[in-house]
Amino acid sequence: MDKRLDENQREELENKIKEQIENHNKLLKNIFIILGGVIVIFLLVYLGISSMRNFEYKGVDFEIEKYCDAKPCLTFYKTSIPINYKDSVTGKIIDADYNIYLRNNPEDLEDVLINGEVNFRENMVLDINTENLFCDGDWVIAIGNLQNLHILGINLIAKNESEIRIYVPAEQFMYVDIRESNETSIEQLNENTYNLNVNNCEILKATERLMLEAFIQANN
Known about the structure:
By secondary structure, the protein is an alpha/beta fold. The protein contains three helices and ten strands.
Protein backbone atom coordinates (compact mmCIF):
# COMPACT_ATOMS: atom_id res chain seq x y z
CA MET A 1 0.00 0.00 0.00
CA ASP A 2 1.42 3.34 -1.08
CA LYS A 3 2.08 5.81 1.67
CA ARG A 4 1.42 9.32 0.51
CA LEU A 5 3.05 12.36 2.07
CA ASP A 6 0.90 15.21 3.10
CA GLU A 7 1.82 18.74 2.15
CA ASN A 8 3.74 19.48 5.37
CA GLN A 9 5.77 16.27 5.15
CA ARG A 10 6.60 16.94 1.51
CA GLU A 11 7.75 20.47 2.32
CA GLU A 12 9.85 19.21 5.23
CA LEU A 13 11.48 16.58 3.00
CA GLU A 14 12.21 19.12 0.28
CA ASN A 15 13.78 21.46 2.83
CA LYS A 16 16.03 18.64 4.10
CA ILE A 17 17.12 17.76 0.57
CA LYS A 18 17.76 21.43 -0.19
CA GLU A 19 19.78 21.78 3.03
CA GLN A 20 21.85 18.69 2.17
CA ILE A 21 22.56 20.04 -1.31
CA GLU A 22 23.62 23.40 0.15
CA ASN A 23 25.92 21.64 2.63
CA HIS A 24 27.45 19.56 -0.14
CA ASN A 25 28.00 22.67 -2.25
CA LYS A 26 29.68 24.45 0.68
CA LEU A 27 31.90 21.41 1.27
CA LEU A 28 32.89 21.25 -2.41
CA LYS A 29 33.54 25.00 -2.42
CA ASN A 30 35.82 24.69 0.61
CA ILE A 31 37.63 21.74 -0.98
CA PHE A 32 38.22 23.72 -4.19
CA ILE A 33 39.44 26.74 -2.19
CA ILE A 34 41.90 24.58 -0.22
CA LEU A 35 43.01 22.75 -3.38
CA GLY A 36 43.49 26.06 -5.19
CA GLY A 37 45.55 27.38 -2.27
CA VAL A 38 47.76 24.29 -2.32
CA ILE A 39 48.30 24.67 -6.08
CA VAL A 40 49.19 28.36 -5.69
CA ILE A 41 51.66 27.58 -2.88
CA PHE A 42 53.20 24.79 -4.98
CA LEU A 43 53.59 27.11 -7.97
CA LEU A 44 55.15 29.84 -5.82
CA VAL A 45 57.62 27.37 -4.31
CA TYR A 46 58.42 25.94 -7.75
CA LEU A 47 58.94 29.40 -9.28
CA GLY A 48 61.06 30.40 -6.28
CA ILE A 49 63.31 27.37 -6.64
CA SER A 50 63.45 27.81 -10.41
CA SER A 51 64.44 31.47 -10.08
CA MET A 52 67.24 30.46 -7.71
CA ARG A 53 68.52 27.95 -10.28
CA ASN A 54 68.35 30.30 -13.25
CA PHE A 55 70.10 33.62 -13.62
CA GLU A 56 71.51 35.94 -16.24
CA TYR A 57 75.08 37.22 -16.41
CA LYS A 58 75.79 40.05 -18.86
CA GLY A 59 73.11 38.83 -21.24
CA VAL A 60 74.02 35.14 -21.02
CA ASP A 61 71.49 32.77 -19.40
CA PHE A 62 72.75 30.16 -16.94
CA GLU A 63 71.13 27.31 -15.03
CA ILE A 64 72.62 25.79 -11.88
CA GLU A 65 72.71 21.99 -11.87
CA LYS A 66 73.88 19.88 -8.94
CA TYR A 67 74.87 16.22 -9.07
CA CYS A 68 75.15 14.37 -5.77
CA ASP A 69 75.43 10.75 -6.93
CA ALA A 70 78.78 10.72 -5.17
CA LYS A 71 80.17 12.98 -2.48
CA PRO A 72 81.12 15.74 -2.64
CA CYS A 73 78.32 17.11 -4.80
CA LEU A 74 79.33 18.68 -8.11
CA THR A 75 77.85 22.02 -9.15
CA PHE A 76 77.74 23.05 -12.80
CA TYR A 77 76.65 26.27 -14.48
CA LYS A 78 74.97 25.41 -17.77
CA THR A 79 74.41 27.71 -20.69
CA SER A 80 72.66 26.64 -23.89
CA ILE A 81 73.53 27.84 -27.37
CA PRO A 82 70.85 27.41 -30.08
CA ILE A 83 72.06 25.49 -33.11
CA ASN A 84 70.57 23.73 -36.12
CA TYR A 85 71.85 20.67 -37.89
CA LYS A 86 70.82 18.38 -40.71
CA ASP A 87 69.45 15.00 -39.65
CA SER A 88 71.47 12.28 -41.38
CA VAL A 89 68.39 10.05 -41.78
CA THR A 90 65.56 12.39 -42.71
CA GLY A 91 67.63 15.22 -44.15
CA LYS A 92 65.53 17.73 -42.20
CA ILE A 93 67.05 20.76 -40.48
CA ILE A 94 66.58 20.37 -36.72
CA ASP A 95 66.72 23.15 -34.13
CA ALA A 96 68.41 22.16 -30.87
CA ASP A 97 70.37 23.49 -27.91
CA TYR A 98 74.08 22.86 -27.43
CA ASN A 99 74.77 22.75 -23.69
CA ILE A 100 78.08 23.93 -22.23
CA TYR A 101 78.92 23.48 -18.54
CA LEU A 102 81.20 25.63 -16.42
CA ARG A 103 82.54 24.56 -13.04
CA ASN A 104 82.86 28.13 -11.75
CA ASN A 105 80.09 30.59 -11.05
CA PRO A 106 80.26 33.23 -13.84
CA GLU A 107 80.02 35.97 -11.22
CA ASP A 108 83.09 34.58 -9.44
CA LEU A 109 85.03 34.63 -12.72
CA GLU A 110 85.08 38.42 -12.50
CA ASP A 111 88.12 37.90 -10.24
CA VAL A 112 90.03 36.89 -13.40
CA LEU A 113 90.96 40.28 -14.82
CA ILE A 114 91.24 40.93 -18.55
CA ASN A 115 94.06 43.34 -19.22
CA GLY A 116 93.19 44.68 -22.67
CA GLU A 117 90.56 43.32 -25.05
CA VAL A 118 89.95 39.80 -26.35
CA ASN A 119 89.48 39.75 -30.11
CA PHE A 120 88.34 36.26 -31.00
CA ARG A 121 89.41 34.85 -34.36
CA GLU A 122 88.39 31.82 -36.38
CA ASN A 123 91.35 29.83 -35.04
CA MET A 124 92.78 29.80 -31.51
CA VAL A 125 96.37 28.51 -31.33
CA LEU A 126 97.26 27.25 -27.83
CA ASP A 127 100.78 27.07 -26.48
CA ILE A 128 101.97 25.86 -23.06
CA ASN A 129 105.48 26.07 -21.70
CA THR A 130 105.23 23.98 -18.52
CA GLU A 131 103.83 20.67 -17.30
CA ASN A 132 102.98 22.18 -13.91
CA LEU A 133 99.52 23.15 -15.16
CA PHE A 134 98.19 19.62 -15.62
CA CYS A 135 96.74 20.14 -12.14
CA ASP A 136 95.35 16.71 -11.19
CA GLY A 137 93.29 16.37 -14.34
CA ASP A 138 91.92 19.93 -14.46
CA TRP A 139 94.03 20.53 -17.57
CA VAL A 140 92.11 17.86 -19.48
CA ILE A 141 88.77 19.39 -18.43
CA ALA A 142 89.98 22.89 -19.31
CA ILE A 143 91.10 21.97 -22.83
CA GLY A 144 87.94 19.92 -23.38
CA ASN A 145 85.91 22.98 -22.41
CA LEU A 146 87.80 25.22 -24.82
CA GLN A 147 87.10 22.78 -27.63
CA ASN A 148 83.39 23.54 -27.13
CA LEU A 149 84.05 26.99 -28.58
CA HIS A 150 83.79 25.39 -32.02
CA ILE A 151 80.05 25.92 -31.64
CA LEU A 152 80.81 29.66 -31.89
CA GLY A 153 83.02 29.11 -34.95
CA ILE A 154 86.32 29.09 -33.05
CA ASN A 155 88.66 26.19 -33.86
CA LEU A 156 91.22 25.07 -31.27
CA ILE A 157 94.73 24.32 -32.51
CA ALA A 158 97.60 23.04 -30.36
CA LYS A 159 100.87 24.69 -31.26
CA ASN A 160 103.46 22.09 -32.24
CA GLU A 161 107.07 23.24 -31.99
CA SER A 162 108.32 20.15 -33.85
CA GLU A 163 106.79 21.19 -37.15
CA ILE A 164 107.09 24.32 -39.20
CA ARG A 165 103.67 25.84 -39.60
CA ILE A 166 102.79 29.23 -40.96
CA TYR A 167 99.44 30.49 -39.76
CA VAL A 168 98.02 32.54 -42.59
CA PRO A 169 96.11 34.65 -43.21
CA ALA A 170 97.08 36.31 -39.92
CA GLU A 171 93.67 37.89 -39.32
CA GLN A 172 92.14 34.42 -38.92
CA PHE A 173 94.36 33.41 -35.99
CA MET A 174 94.72 34.32 -32.32
CA TYR A 175 97.55 33.02 -30.13
CA VAL A 176 97.09 32.07 -26.48
CA ASP A 177 100.12 31.22 -24.33
CA ILE A 178 99.06 29.38 -21.17
CA ARG A 179 101.65 30.02 -18.48
CA GLU A 180 102.26 30.02 -14.74
CA SER A 181 102.00 33.35 -12.96
CA ASN A 182 101.44 34.88 -9.54
CA GLU A 183 98.04 36.08 -10.76
CA THR A 184 95.25 34.39 -12.72
CA SER A 185 94.39 36.76 -15.55
CA ILE A 186 94.12 37.25 -19.31
CA GLU A 187 96.68 39.63 -20.76
CA GLN A 188 96.60 41.06 -24.27
CA LEU A 189 100.11 41.44 -25.72
CA ASN A 190 99.14 42.73 -29.14
CA GLU A 191 96.17 42.64 -31.49
CA ASN A 192 95.90 38.83 -31.59
CA THR A 193 98.33 37.47 -28.96
CA TYR A 194 97.47 36.78 -25.32
CA ASN A 195 98.92 35.36 -22.13
CA LEU A 196 96.57 33.16 -20.15
CA ASN A 197 98.17 33.53 -16.72
CA VAL A 198 97.46 30.78 -14.18
CA ASN A 199 98.15 31.06 -10.46
CA ASN A 200 97.95 28.16 -8.01
CA CYS A 201 96.66 25.71 -10.64
CA GLU A 202 93.55 27.81 -11.42
CA ILE A 203 93.57 26.49 -14.99
CA LEU A 204 89.79 25.96 -14.99
CA LYS A 205 89.14 29.48 -13.76
CA ALA A 206 91.42 31.00 -16.41
CA THR A 207 90.02 29.04 -19.35
CA GLU A 208 86.40 29.45 -18.24
CA ARG A 209 86.93 33.21 -18.00
CA LEU A 210 88.07 33.15 -21.62
CA MET A 211 85.03 31.06 -22.58
CA LEU A 212 82.69 33.38 -20.70
CA GLU A 213 84.04 36.35 -22.65
CA ALA A 214 83.33 34.44 -25.88
CA PHE A 215 79.72 33.79 -24.75
CA ILE A 216 79.20 37.45 -23.87
CA GLN A 217 80.57 38.68 -27.19
CA ALA A 218 78.57 36.10 -29.17
CA ASN A 219 75.37 37.08 -27.34
CA ASN A 220 75.92 40.76 -28.05
